[in-house]
């Protein structure tokens, strides 16, 4: 079981700007709602930032139940936490949204996948690892696609570059900070569940790297139209 929440932050609060502009600070902010390490810690926490009519919205999924009253400043609205124990069936069709840090490892470093084809192939591989396969989008889908080239991916999925994510992690020794930079891609599409057990595990754990900084949350919705 996991807990789902939706937090809307006050766009007029100066600290909100700092949170949205610093992924490490945002991570620290959210962690305040969970038990300390001595009390078992937060477990896996996944989230995604979305800007809705100039209001920053945080979609949060967590292993432990949060107490949003512990956050300062308080969100201007909060939905949840809502317990969710997903149960999937082989062949089940779902729509999905994923902001992922699509990268490859080489010589101990992560390198961003920059082309449309490479990003689509990355998601297809993740599907094979995590119990799902991509299927054509429903007719009439109008998701935004920021790519303006003519290269079509081998899978049916819409992709858009997500904003650059920057964080500043303080050093404990000299007071300097380590700059954290992540670039991701937003995937919107449809999938078929192939292995319910593996798929459920992927929902709980997240997909891809940089999960502490706003990547990896796989959001689902029933298939329609």
What does this protein structure show overall?
The chain has 225 residues and is α+β, with helices and mostly antiparallel strands. The chain has two domains: 83 residues, Crispr-associated protein, domain 1 (Alpha-Beta Plaits); 130 residues, Crispr-associated protein, domain 2 (Alpha-Beta Plaits), CATH 3.30.70. Helix content is 19%, strand content 36%. It has four helices and 13 strands. The strands form four sheets. Strands 5, 8, 9, 12 and 13 form a five-stranded antiparallel beta sheet that branches. The chain has a four-stranded antiparallel beta sheet with strand order 2-3-1-4, with no helix packed on it. A two-stranded antiparallel sheet has the order 6-7. A hairpin with a 6-residue loop joins strand 10 and strand 11. The longest helix is centred in the middle third of the chain and has 15 residues. The two termini are 29 Å apart. About 4% of the residues have low confidence.
Helix content: 10-25%
CATH architecture of the largest domain: 2-Layer Sandwich
Tally of helical segments: 4
Report the principal-axis shape.
globular
Terminal Cα span: 29 Å
Count of structural domains? 2
Strand content: 35-45%
Number of strands: 13
CATH superfamily of the largest domain: Crispr-associated protein, domain 2
**Which class of secondary structure composition applies to the elements?**
alpha+beta
**H-E string:** EHHEEEEEEHEEEEEHE
**CATH C-level name of the largest domain:** Alpha Beta
The largest sheet is: 5 strands, antiparallel
CATH level 3 topology of the largest domain: Alpha-Beta Plaits
Query: What average pLDDT do the residues reach?
Result: 85
Low-confidence stretches: 142-151
């Amino acid at each position: 079981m996991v807990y789902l929440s939706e937090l809307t932050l006050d766009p007029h609060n100066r600290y909100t700007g700092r949170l949205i502009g610093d992924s490490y600070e945002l991570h620290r902010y959210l962690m305040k709602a969970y038990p300390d390490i001595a009390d078992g810690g937060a477990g896996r926490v996944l989230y995604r930032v979305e800007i809705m009519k100039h209001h920053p919205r945080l979609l949060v999924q967590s292993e432990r139940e949060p107490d949003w009253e512990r956050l300062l400043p308080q969100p201007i609205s909060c939905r949840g936490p809502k317990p969710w124990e997903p149960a999937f069936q082989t062949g089940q069709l779902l729509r999905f949204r994923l902001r992922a840090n699509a990268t490859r490892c080489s010589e101990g470093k992560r390198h961003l996948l920059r082309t449309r084809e490479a990003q689509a192939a990355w998601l297809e591989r993740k599907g094979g690892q995590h119990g799902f396969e991509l299927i054509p989008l429903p007719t009439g889908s109008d998701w935004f696609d920021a790519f303006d080239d003519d290269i079509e991916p081998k899978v049916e999925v819409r992709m858009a570059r997500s904003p650059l994510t920057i964080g500043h992690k303080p050093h404990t020794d000299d007071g300097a900070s380590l700059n954290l930079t992540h670039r991701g891609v937003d995937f919107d599409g449809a999938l078929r569940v192939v292995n319910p057990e593996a798929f459920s595990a992927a929902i709980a754990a997240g997909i891809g790297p940089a999960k502490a900084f706003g990547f990896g949350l796989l959001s689902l919705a029933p298939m329609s139209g």
